[in-house]
Write a structure and sequence with these properties.
The protein is of the alpha+beta class and 120 residues long. The protein is 22% helix and 12% strand. The strands form three sheets. A two-stranded antiparallel sheet has the order 1-2. Strands 3-4 form a two-stranded antiparallel ribbon. The structure holds iron/sulfur cluster (2 copies). One iron/sulfur cluster is lined by residues 24, 27-30, 93-96, 103, 107. The site of one iron/sulfur cluster has 11 residues, from loops.
């Protein structure tokens, strides 16, 4: 696979945020709608398939897991097929904390209400 060399440091993943312990129930909208961006360590680990996404800097694309019509590449049979080794972005992401208002609305529509108040 051909890969363009570039500096990793501009990729913004908040790696020091503790992993969320919030239960998201059976909602899988983030897996259906998003492409998790990989950290440099995750990319060089070779564990994940990846694609390049456009960023604000054309010379510095994001490295992300590909998104298919059915959702994330690793979203199989309605669940994450690599759950135990899913990327850090997936572990941190919680739409109920206000990261993605759109997804928050989708989750609200699906669940009716959140189990926790959003922590913005
Ligand atoms: S890697 Fe797993 S948890 Fe992360 S978006 Fe894809 S299917 Fe969801
Ligand atoms: S509630 Fe939000 S973070 Fe949790 S699975 Fe659904 S879309 Fe993803």
């Amino acid at each position: 696979m051909i890969f363009k060399s570039f500096t990793f440091t501009a990729i913004t993943i908040e790696r020091d945020i503790p992993h969320s312990t919030v239960e998201c129930g059976n909602c899988t909208k983030c897996c259906e709608l998003l492409s998790p961006i990989l950290t440099p360590e995750e990319f060089v680990s070779g564990k994940y398939v990846y694609t390049l996404l456009q960023s604000d800097n054309p010379d510095l694309p994001y490295i992300a897991i590909p998104k298919l019509d059915t959702g994330c590449f690793y979203f199989k049979d309605g669940k994450c097929s690599i759950y135990e080794t899913r990327p850090n972005a997936c572990r941190q992401f919680d739409c109920r904390k206000g990261h993605y208002p759109l997804l928050k609305d989708i989750a609200l529509e699906k669940f009716g209400q959140y189990s926790d108040e959003p922590e913005l």
